[in-house]
Amino acid sequence: MPKFSFQDVGPCAAVWDYGGTPVIFRSYLGKFSFKHEDSVSPVHEEEYGDLAVDAVFAGGTAELALPIIRTSLEKLEDILPGSSLLGDVLSVFNKCGSAMYEDAKQLCIKPIKDNVVSVDPKEWILFYKVHPFKSIDLGYDRKEQRVILVKFRVFPMQESGFEGKMYDIGVAT
Questions:
Q1: CA distance 93 to 133
Q2: For residue 112, how far is the Cα from the chain centroid?
Q3: Chain centre distance of CA 166
Q4: Are residues 95 and 84 in contact, defined by beta-carbon separation less than 8 angstroms?
Q5: Which three-class secondary structure state does DSSP give residue 102?
Q6: Model pTM?
Q7: To the nearest whole percent, how much of the chain has pLDDT over 90?
Q8: What DSSP string describes 79-120?
Q9: How far apart are CA 101 and CA 157, in angstroms?
Q10: Total Cβ atoms within 10 A of residue 128
Q11: Is residue 48 part of a domain?
């Protein structure tokens, strides 16, 4: 039986646009997190009152959050939707009305051990359709380092033969 192969503790590299023109993020501070939560709708019968007699899966939500630090404007332009880099100026524009799925890309999480990014695909997590969105809250004080939080919405694939697939834990070679 296959073992849960990635490390119990430790940092990782996030590879945005994996399979395309990859942009690697290793400089982050705090927890790079992935949360996947199923939605469940209860089924009731009057005889049992408020206690559900069954439940039905009703989809769910999946999201990643990457607290980026000490990065380049070029990398931020690649990952921040609605941004444009001209020389040393990164302009960020309001996004409104554009769908995310069409521009979603793959993102791969690769553990880092002893400052080396894993080359073992069994340790990776590959997300097939993710799109970043901004959740920036920059603080300026004398004690805390500034972090640019970028979140990613994970979508189920809609392509024929892969409908509903969201991610793989362990990547086939």
A1: 12
A2: 17
A3: 11
A4: no
A5: helix
A6: 0.88
A7: 75
A8: HSTTEEEETTEEEE----S--SGGG-EEEEEEEEETTEE---
A9: 9
A10: 20
A11: no
| 66 burial type by CB count under 10 A (0-12 exposed, 13-18 middle, 19+ buried) | buried
pLDDT band, residue 2 (cuts 50/70/90): low
Token look-up 């409104």 returns: 96
Res 3 pLDDT > 80: no
Alpha helix segments (H runs only) across the chain: 73-79
Is 90 contained in some domain?
Answer: yes
Write the single-letter amino acid at 152. F
Task: Please state the domain count of the chain.
Answer: 1
In the numeric block, the tokens 């521009």 are attached to: 103
Q: How far apart are CA 23 and CA 58, in angstroms?
A: 34
Residue 101: band (very low, low, confident or very high) from pLDDT cuts 50, 70, 90: very high
| Closest CA relative to residue 85, chosen from 98, 97, 71 | 71
User: Does 148 fall in a domain?
Assistant: yes
Distance CA 55, CA 72 (A): 47
**Does 136 score more than 90 pLDDT?**
no
pLDDT band at 63 (very low <50, low <70, confident <90, very high): very high
Q: How many CB atoms lie within 10 A of CB 64?
A: 22
Structure tokens at 135: 């959740």
Q: What confidence category does residue 5 fall into, taking pLDDT thresholds of 50, 70 and 90?
A: low
- Asked if residue 93 is part of any domain, the answer here is yes
- Structure tokens that stand for 87 in this block: 């020389």
Range of the domain at 123: 12-40+56-169
Query: According to the model, what pLDDT value does residue 62 have?
Result: 95
